[in-house]
Design goal:
The complex is a heterodimer of chains A (331) and B (412).
Chain A lengths: L2 E10 L2 E2 L1 H9 L18 H5 L9 H17 L7 E7 L4 H13 L18 H10 L5 E5 L4 H14 L5 E8 L3 H7 L7 E9 L11 E10 L7 H16 L7 E6 L12 E2 L3 H4 L6 H15 L7 E8 L3 E8 L5
Parallel strand pairs in A: 3-4, 3-5, 8-9, 8-10
Antiparallel strand pairs in A: 1-2, 1-6, 1-7, 5-6, 7-11, 10-11
Helix pairs in contact in A: 1-10, 3-5
Chain B lengths: L12 E10 L2 E2 H11 L5 E2 L12 E2 L13 H6 L2 H16 L4 H5 L3 E6 L4 H13 L19 H10 L4 E6 L5 H14 L5 E8 L3 H9 L23 E9 H6 L6 E10 L9 H15 L8 E3 L6 H15 L6 E2 L2 H4 L6 H15 L1 E2 L22 E2 L4 E8 L3 E8 L4
Parallel strand pairs in B: 5-6, 5-7, 10-11, 10-14
Antiparallel strand pairs in B: 1-2, 1-8, 1-9, 3-4, 7-8, 9-15, 12-13, 14-15
Classes of the chains: A alpha/beta (331), B alpha/beta (412).
Amino acid sequence: MRAVVTGWSAVSPWGRGAAAFADGLLAARPAREAGGAATVPDFDVRELLGRRDTNSMDRATAYAIVAVGDLLAETAPARGTDLAVVLGTTSGSLQAQYDMAVQSTTRRRRHLVDPGLVPHAVLNSAASRTAIRHHLRGANSTVAAGAVSGLLVLDQARRMLTAGRADAVVAGAAEECSPTRRWLTGRDDLGEGAVALLVERADDVPAGRPVLAEVLGVSSRVVLGDAPGDTAAALRECVAGLLRRTGTAADELWAAVPLDPANHVFAEGVHVVGLTELIGHGGAVSAAFQVAAVLALAGADPASAGRRALVTSADGTGVVAAAVLELPRSA
Amino acid sequence: MTPAVTPTATRRVVVTGLGIVSSIGTGADEFAAGLRAGRDGAGEITVFDPTGFPTTIGCDVPGFEPRRWMSDERAESLDRIAQLSVAAAVMAVRHARADLAALRERRGAISLGTNGRANVFADLCAAEIAAGGEQSGPPPAGADLLPADLVCLEVARELGLADVETATVGTACSAGNYAIANAFDAIRSGDVEFALCGGVDPMCVGTFASFTRFGTVAADACRPFDADRTGMLVGEGAAVLVLEPLEAALARGADIHAEVLGCGLNCDAFHQVAPDQQGVADCVRRALADAGVRPEDVDLVSAHGTATKANDVVEVAAIREVFGDATPPVISVKSMLGHTMGAASALAAAACVLALEHGFVPPTINHRHTDPECDVDCVPNVAREADLRIVQNNSLGFGGNNAVLVLGRYEA
């Protein structure tokens, strides 16, 4: 079974939609405030999703709903398609959890928290709300893997398709830029948004729908030590194993999109792209942004035809991951 | 030594080890004895101060002693959720008599369901909230403990497993089954050669407040399917199953406790909190089709069975919709264990494994009068000897995330 990406959408600090993401990336336009965070511009949740249910909705959930909605509008899966959803997160909405903690600490009757807040304080808020909004009754999973989430969800999508759990999978991730996330991470350079990818079996792609990339493989590895260099060593081992397993020679690599270009582990001469400088540290959505970057760049670069891209990431909790995508021979 | 690899589509997946921390027993043997005796795990909550809540009882594990399963140093460095997952994983590997050195040489998966780090969150923020909540200072000590995937990563570190996929599944109260389903697919497809899978959640004030807010916490006892049921009790615990391909288990002479036959995953896409009959019935049908069994082949249903008014009526209606007159006994182990959230369906799956292996049906305790709207044989109060071949384990999560697992007695 070969798994392929046939559509994508994003809500990012470059704005709403795949085109806004691609434009921002190709122009290398910084979307961060000087020395600060990169937030999604012009995103009015009530205007986009209505007043109902949106009062206490966390930002990541709203971004996921919009990104998946845009993906479905663009790809228009046939009626009756059994569509699964797999979304990545780090810890769910830290802001919603904080707001609940405030309420259950400061209110005299401690359990009288805002009931609208509760669904947003659980890990599966984005995935389950997305399913409800878009009537997606297939398998619906949430994978908490922090920065590497965007790669693990691709692997989960491939696995679900192999196991016959769905006809197609919406895989992605979402992240919020909130006061609580800034406080708890101690970082000023945060980014946010959501990415949704449509993943299908290569044999099932309807005529006329272009294949944007094939998912040749995903691998992850745990960093057991905490000495300096352990993460980089684990990532090198992870990448080496993945390149071997997918039969990828160094000269087949057209591009590499690492989380942090300063620690890249690739052959010389590969086109290396970094996103954090432009759109901040995306947390749970960072690796999904990296995958989106591969698709956006390949769409604009004929030299990508038939070649491969490597996406790598590492999370501070001690996990590294990599994916190899193959770009189509002709657009 | 290495067995010939069979085509992945036909690869069978078996359970070769169980690690359990629960309010009715620790370890497979004690847990099995607790299930057979119909032990009630409920008591006055001790793991946090429940003052101010209408219900102050729950199914916590006050006697949990992490040092039995890890070094003093490790026990001190981990918080309760990681202690629970590490203890259950270590126990499961020992129960499986698995050779750690051999596991380290093979690609594996650690796949655990959880509701995340809600247990540390309130404590972490307490000082900030008391100080007015400006959130302008440096991160509080322990903020690095918040990422949910630490429940899997600490297991990997404890066991020295680097070449593993760590999949922390956050599908609310069906997370345990989802995590086991992911491990099952990973082995069946040939992605990995073994998996440690299940679920974990400690009791904490945040989740307790949420369940209380929704009016789902029982006044006195958890009575699934009872006319007088008033809701769930909140519990805690962990269950880890060791899964292996059948050939690998046979090659090393492992005890095979049960076989994973299939699973169904879906989403109601209906309501954030209320379950949906159509969604649950569809999930059961998916699971039976995946396992290749007919409804009449199922000998027992381990229900989600939270004992809330809404859950039990909707779940039983969904079961009846699929099984009709052939509905087998439908039990709820939550009557004994409380609702352990991310651990719930994993503990229930472990109970199914033990029921299949030892030939008994765990009872639904605290039962007085069956609600006519939940008219099933719930095996009230007393366990029953039974020759079980195929058992189904339901789970329904917040957000409409359903996962149903089908387990079978191992037959060569």
